[in-house]
Design brief:
Layout lengths: L4 H30 L3 H27 L19 H28 L3 H31 L3 H11 L11
Helix pairs in contact: 1-2, 1-3, 2-5, 3-4, 4-5
Length: 170
């Protein structure tokens, strides 16, 4: 059975949100590169790859269900902070927004009684719990560090060890 049109539209909107997330994190990566904080650059590089994988997972799902993928324009990302702490506050705010949007897609799946979509979206819902926890951990450390430059450099070194593991979505 082909995907419901309302469900298809919700996925297409979320695909755009995921690609916007990739774009936002790419802009943030550049900011940290300007500050020569290469561990943070690495952290954002992995976020960029993850967001692309999230978008592509939904993209492929819509096609697999016989739907039509429509790619919308991606808004210009706006970085609201000028310090690592301020930027990570924005990252957490953004991840919470993404969680709300994925929950919206799940609400649509519930409304149109698309059980397959609900099962598929379960992975994304769990992933958002992990995303918010990961960002929250970095944010808590940045708050603890305050203005301590050595603490910032220690966190930067820690973040350089993060590696990208391609997700198995679904």
């Amino acid at each position: 059975m082909a995907i419901d049109k309302k469900m298809e539209a919700a996925f297409n909107e979320q695909i755009n949100k995921e690609y916007y997330s990739e774009y936002l994190y790419l802009a943030m990566k550049a900011k940290f590169s300007e500050w020569n904080l290469n561990g943070f650059v690495n952290w954002f590089d992995i976020q960029v790859q993850e967001e692309r994988a999230h978008a592509e997972g939904m993209y492929n799902y819509v096609l697999e269900r016989g739907g039509h993928v429509e790619l919308y324009a991606i808004d210009k990302p706006e970085i609201k902070g000028n310090t690592p702490l301020e930027i990570f506050k924005q990252v957490l705010e953004h991840e919470e927004y993404v969680t709300s949007r994925i929950n919206h897609v799940a609400d649509v799946a519930d409304e149109v009684k698309d059980r397959a979509a609900l099962i598929f979206l379960n992975w994304y819902i769990k992933e958002q719990v992990e995303e918010e926890a990961s960002v929250g951990g970095v944010l808590a450390t940045l708050e603890l560090i305050g203005d301590d430059k050595q603490g910032l450099l220690a966190l930067d070194k820690e973040l350089s060890a993060r590696v990208f593991n391609p997700p198995v979505i679904g």
